[in-house]
Amino acid sequence: GEDVEQSLFLSVREGDSSVINCTYTDSSSTYLYWYKQEPGAGLQLLTYIFSNMDMKQDQRLTVLLNKKDKHLSLRIADTQTGDSAIYFCAGEGDYGGSQGNLIFGKGTKLSVKP
Amino acid sequence: ETGVTQSPTHLIKTRGQQVTLRCSSQSGHNTVSWYQQALGQGPQFIFQYYREEENGRGNFPPRFSGLQFPNYSSELNVNALELDDSALYLCASSLELAGLEQYFGPGTRLTVT
């Protein structure tokens, strides 16, 4: 089944760009996702990319997908202290025929220093 | 349009007890998925309900069970609680089984002592 790996920590200065990386094992996901989790909160869908796309830009967020290397990245431009959170990369699983269930990495904790 | 809500927010139970967690899906969404998020981990898929039927299950034992009601709200039941069941339980709703744009609730923090 799908396995998703992420680096655990990233620290940047306010105003810099942040790049969070993710690798996955299964190429069958139709979409790949980025979620954000703030302390004590649930998950917020940030963005997603269709598997036949290489790049998607959404305001300060840029998603890059390298299908050959099974590598996904999320770039946050002009990172702000409010971006401090845990970021999860997720692919689509296939448990017992169910569609749309997600397989998450362990999350990357982004710390933004003023 | 209301978002996904979960109750209770926090819960403390003793090993061996049973617990029921509740989730109200976003208006118009007929699919609810439940996830378990242990401390420091990513969420893990427990099972999914679509139009009141279980539609897929992750690697969780049968003591994890669920229900979905005609209004598409859902319950997660866990019997014979173990210490390792301590986690944040998240539900997510979506429209018609699509993984695209699953909306998550704030979660229920369960502590088993």
SSE order and pairing:
The complex is a heterodimer of chains A (114) and B (113).
Chain A: E1 4-6, E2 9-13, E3 18-24, E4 31-37, E5 43-50, E6 55-58, E7 61-66, E8 71-76, E9 85-92, E10 102-104, E11 108-113
Parallel strand pairs in A: 2-11
Antiparallel strand pairs in A: 1-3, 3-8, 4-5, 4-9, 6-7, 7-8, 9-10, 9-11
Chain B: E1 5-7, E2 10-13, E3 19-24, E4 31-37, E5 44-50, E6 53-57, E7 64-68, E8 74-78, E9 87-94, E10 103-104, E11 108-112
Parallel strand pairs in B: 2-11
Antiparallel strand pairs in B: 1-3, 3-8, 4-5, 4-9, 5-6, 7-8, 9-10, 9-11
Oligomer category: heterodimer
CA(first)-CA(last) distance of chain A: 40 Å
Q: In DSSP terms, counting alpha (H) and pi (I) runs of 4 or more, how many helices of chain B?
A: 0
Largest sheet of chain A: 6 strands, mixed
What average pLDDT do the residues of chain B reach?
A: 92
What does this structure look like?
The complex is a heterodimer of chains A (114) and B (113). Helices cover 0% and strands 55% of the residues of chain A. In chain A, the strands form 2 sheets. In chain A, strands 2, 4, 5, 9, 10 and 11 form a 6-stranded mixed sheet that branches. In chain A, strands 1-3-8-7-6 form a 5-stranded antiparallel sheet, with no helix packed on it. Chain A is globular, with a radius of gyration of 14 Å. Chain B is an all-beta fold. Chain B is 0% helix and 50% strand. Chains A and B meet through strand 4, strand 5, strand 9 and strand 10 of A and strand 4, strand 5, strand 6, strand 9 and strand 10 of B.
Short précis:
The complex is a heterodimer of chains A (114) and B (113). Chain A is built from no helices and eleven strands.
